[in-house]
Design brief:
Structural class: alpha+beta
Number of helices: 14
Radius of gyration: 22 Å
Strand content: 15-25%
Domain FAD-binding: 2-324
Largest sheet: 8 strands, mixed
Protein name: NAD(P)/FAD-dependent oxidoreductase
Helix content: 25-40%
Number of domains: 3
InterPro entries: FAD-bd (IPR002938), FAD/NAD-bd_sf (IPR036188), Geranylgeranyl_reductase (IPR050407)
CATH class of the largest domain: Alpha Beta
Shape: globular
Number of strands: 19
CATH architecture of the largest domain: 3-Layer(bba) Sandwich
Length: 421
């Protein structure tokens, strides 16, 4: 009998299993995959996410894997250009001392996390497919499944957690309902290239399209392009030519460099963005974490960081339930409530700009930001997860910025639904 069974051992499941095992609980973690293995991902870990890795004692392992540091970020939205990096957080605040961001391959990051869960004392079974949950009196009490063609096995626990992604087997089995959602807007194609030294680029515009690039392991650059879903069939007819076209249209200089020096090292990874949603993420004997319970468009690259953040949150609440500090159902309800509150601003921002075009409000905010060095620092603090969105988008703060810049009065958007001087 386990205290907790975690289904899925990537960036949400492995940290959860590790944290609970470190607290002394008996944990089983299973995944249909074996490691190292790949999975679709933006790779990007914000400073806030790196703060969790540092706190858990894992950041040095990511750095030692050869993942290159990134200390300058380049964003553009048509003619708006914002370049720079966030100031390191003050001493004593998380993520203290982190002066770079990293974009590790998932073959690297997930292996580190799975191994650390095992080292912490969790029992890890790779290549294990969960076929069904075990219920007793409408309460989840365990799982049934098998590893490959092996015999069916049954495991029981006080709590079963689904960390198994957007198509979560656990979420389907318990009938977890979506209570907030919106359709995915775009598709993405990405691969890995040698011969490119672009640093971190996030470039949007010129016909609702984007290219992004950042350095990753093995001296390769990940290059991704995005367009609206209705252009997916057109793009996939010739992905190489289509990617070249997007990069060249957004920045001709980068387009020439890609054509002359870039060499694709691996097959393309295509993906239609899943819908955005919040699912009911707890019930009798079960909980959901990571994309199983909450998913948003990958445009802002917050998936890995949020997986870390809310795995830590869930681990703390589950500890309260298992230790008897409070009833488990109450602890899990607090987990979902706090997750929704803490993620609200990130979700709202992501959905607002992931259509690959800016509303007049965001156009004015980002345009003014690009003209002011101090507010540019605030922007990168927002990106890093270290500067509060309520201050960056605060009405008084924006009004003061517009006044400082003598910004055109008719373009002074301090609220999303109006213009105020």
């Amino acid at each position: 009998m386990y205290d907790v069974i975690v289904v899925g051992t990537r960036v949400a499941g492995s940290p959860l299993a590790m944290l609970l095992a470190r607290k002394g609980y008996r944990v089983l973690a299973v995944d249909r995959a074996t490691f190292p293995s790949d999975t679709p991902s933006t790779h990007y870990i914000h400073q806030a996410g790196l703060g969790f890795l540092k706190h858990w004692g894992l950041l040095d392992k990511v750095i030692a894997s050869g993942t290159p540091p990134i200390r300058k970020l380049n964003f553009s939205y048509t003619d708006i250009v914002i370049k720079g990096f966030a100031n390191p957080p003050a001493a004593g605040t998380m993520p203290e001392g982190i002066d770079a961001v990293y974009c590790p391959r998932r073959t690297v990051l997930d292996k580190i996390l799975v191994d650390e869960a095992g080292a912490a004392g969790a029992e890890v079974i790779e290549g294990f497919a969960v076929r069904e949950l075990i219920f007793e009196d409408d309460r989840v009490v365990g799982i049934r499944g098998a590893a490959g063609a092996g015999p069916e096995r049954e495991f029981r626990a006080k709590l079963v957690v689904g960390a198994d992604g957007a198509n979560s087997t656990v979420a389907k089995a318990v009938g977890a309902e979506i209570y907030e959602g919106s359709p995915g807007a775009c598709f993405i194609y990405y691969s890995y290239y040698s011969g490119l030294d672009w640093g971190m680029q996030h470039r949007t515009g010129f016909g609702e399209q984007q290219f992004a690039s950042w350095p990753t392991n093995d001296e390769l650059a990940m290059v991704a392009v995005m367009r609206k879903r209705d252009r997916f069939r057109e793009f996939r007819a010739d992905p190489d030519a289509s990617l070249q076209e997007i990069v060249s249209q957004i920045d001709p200089e980068f387009g020439v460099n890609l054509k002359d020096s870039g060499e694709r090292a691996e097959p393309f990874r295509p993906m239609l963005y899943p819908d955005n949603y919040r699912r009911q993420s707890y019930g009798p004997g079960w909980a959901l974490v990571g994309d199983a319970g909450y998913h948003k468009d990958p445009f802002t690259g917050w998936g890995i960081t949020d997986a870390f953040k809310y795995s830590q949150l869930l681990a703390d609440r589950v500890d309260e339930g298992l230790s008897g500090a409070k009833p488990m159902d109450e602890a899990l309800a607090e987990y979902q409530r706090d997750r929704d509150i803490q993620s609200a601003s990130t979700l709202e921002l992501t959905l607002s700009i992931s259509e690959l075009s800016l509303t007049p409000y965001y156009d004015s905010v980002f345009r003014a930001t690009s003209l002011d060095a101090d507010y540019t620092k605030n922007f990168f603090g927002l990106i890093a997860g270290t500067y509060p969105p309520e201050k960056y988008f605060g009405e008084q703060e924006l009004a003061a910025l517009y006044e400082k810049l003598d910004f055109p009065v008719e373009a002074r958007h301090t609220t999303k639904d109006g213009v105020r001087a």
